[in-house]
């Protein structure tokens, strides 16, 4: 009987969050360990389907760096990075489109549908969803890597309002119709801003943002986050993720999270529990 009571208490704890988030959009960047661990990936799909069934509007934006690297290796092509961005020549872009827009996108759509949801796969070039321009890094041309200029979310809104869960591959298009590789965190942040999402969630392979002693910072304001960047507490690969969250909060997104994607049902734990959750929450 006690275990049944505990289950009921979990539902009661979640109720206020369900009420507050009813009808709200949640943009989730899915990547890292969760994408290569079948169990974690399946739990993620269940989380997203549950969000949809209780009245939220989840939008998935996915990465696929390891899968791209694996395919390039099989083709005998070396992966080269500049400041964490993959140098993308025309041949590499063909692989990016094949892997992200095809294999990975399809796998996530199928996973969501196995969990009982209905899903539609898209790329940022569909309906000119992600309009981009060539990204130059420290004066260096790194090929077909794009930075977002504008986002037209109408195709996402249409898909979501039809009862489907959009799954978006981070591929953008320029004014000439040429496709570009886009950082998945940047794509998720841009979509969250355009959709005026209630939440932006970036699933990653670490516990969250850590302080100078290696302890999890469960909540940060924008000013606190900037302070940690300036003093060197937040470094390297975490800086772009934190900056993405900070930018989203300054542009119509209510809450942003960096979530430990290695934890089963991480999305539900971060959204619907009173505890500190499984990552770092950013607030204005």
If you had to describe this structure to a student in words, what would you say it looks like?
- With 284 residues, the chain is α/β, with parallel strands linked by helices.
- It has one domain (22-283): Acetylglutamate kinase-like (Carbamate kinase), CATH 3.40.1160.10.
- The chain has helices at 2-21, 33-36, 38-53, 65-74, 90-114, 154-161, 184-194, 222-230, 238-250, 266-272; strands at 25-30, 57-62, 81-82, 85-86, 119-123, 130-137, 140-151, 165-169, 171-173, 179-181, 199-204, 219-221, 255-260, 279-283.
- It has an eight-stranded mixed beta sheet, with helices on both faces. Strands 3-4 form a two-stranded antiparallel ribbon. Strands 6-7 form a two-stranded antiparallel sheet.
- Strand 9 (171-173) and strand 10 (179-181) form a beta hairpin.
- Helix 7 packs parallel to helix 9 and helix 8 (222-230) packs antiparallel against helix 9.
- 45% of the residues are buried.
Judging from the principal axes of the Cα atoms, what is the shape?
A: globular
Q: Calculate the mean pLDDT score and round it.
A: 91
* Number of structural units classed as domains: 1
Unreliable sequence segments: none
The rounded distance between the terminal residues' Cα atoms is 42 Å
Relative helix content: 40-55%
TL;DR?
With 284 residues, this protein is α/β, with parallel strands linked by helices. It is built from ten helices and 14 strands.
Draw up the topology in text.
Elements: H1 2-21, E1 25-30, H2 33-36, H3 38-53, E2 57-62, H4 65-74, E3 81-82, E4 85-86, H5 90-114, E5 119-123, E6 130-137, E7 140-151, H6 154-161, E8 165-169, E9 171-173, E10 179-181, H7 184-194, E11 199-204, E12 219-221, H8 222-230, H9 238-250, E13 255-260, H10 266-272, E14 279-283
Parallel strand pairs: 1-2, 1-11, 2-8, 5-8, 11-13, 12-14
Antiparallel strand pairs: 3-4, 6-7, 9-10, 13-14
Helix pairs in contact: 3-5, 4-5, 7-9, 8-9
